[in-house]
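Researcher: Next entry in the queue.
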Amino acid sequence: MNVQTIVDHLESFAPLAFQEDFDNCGLLVGNRNQEVEGILICLDVTEDVVDEAISTNHNMIISHHPIIFKGLKSLTGRNEGERCVMKAIKHDIAIYAAHTNLDNAPDGVNFRIAQKLNLENVQVLAPKSDMLLKLVTFVPTSHLEKVRNALFIAGAGHIGEYDSCSFSHSGEGTFRPGVAAKPFIGVVGEIHHEPEIRLEVIVPKYKQSAVISALMQSHPYEEPALDLIPLANKWKQVGLGVVGDLPKKYAESDFLKHVKETFKSDVIKHSPLLNRDIRRVALCGGSGADFIPYAKAVGADAFVTADVTYHRFFEAENNLLILDVGHFESEQYTKEIFFEQLIEKFPNFAIRLSTSEKKRVFSF
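Model: Structure for this entry, 364 residues:
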């Protein structure tokens, strides 16, 4: 099994197309054709983690945070990031990062946090837009099912919890084959009228190539007509943060204890208490203060995130309880997702959670 095999599986549930524009996910160090002897999973790639990989003969590291984020202009060992990359290259260790693509993925980081907090009726807080297309094509009646099923298999036709979604309507198409054409039906040089079906399906942009390829292979025409229409629709299953409901109401003090125990936080910073019960909870792992307005908009009683600066707490405005649980604490369960996805796909492979990784921020 090589690095690319692992990458393909990771990106099957957290496609790189899901990452935010500022991010740097994917294979950051290593040869895609290199054979993988073992995988080490961590939140952050540190020198201790790389040393652990070397000592345990795990030559691929999968992390949540990218070790190369803003780019490297030199490799001189002047900081820990450069030293990690240099050591990984020297010892033929591949490094892969799934960051905001995993945050945005269905059942990704924020859904796991919601699970830990026992939230129910969980939905994406800030769905992504500009991710969907509508494919329209025209198919002779005899080949409708063949073409439609090929598009479904390639990844088209998903709307929410439903698959195999399409719309079709009958009509008549006309065409005149040119001298060099090899028409499936009709005669060169003569206008042909053919009963056709207008077929429409939704396509995620990142699956566009695969879906178009499936169309071309299954469609009987030499030159199938098709339209790709960008959609303004938000993709409700993909996006940052989630919102859900606790199974029962919590007094604020009890909710704070519940959150602190769940994340094993040394301390939780929060906005002023509102003296009201907590039931509806929004959250965003990592630096999620930008989603405070989203939490308000969905009627959340509390918003759980990390890295909230002093003035962002003012945005609570006596309408919301804002909790900062710590960056490491909010994303610590990311490693569980990697492990579960990989061990299910490769049950007899050496996959290890890092034991050398340590928190970098503490409270006195």
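Model: The two ends are 46 Å apart (CA to CA).
Researcher: Noted, moving on.
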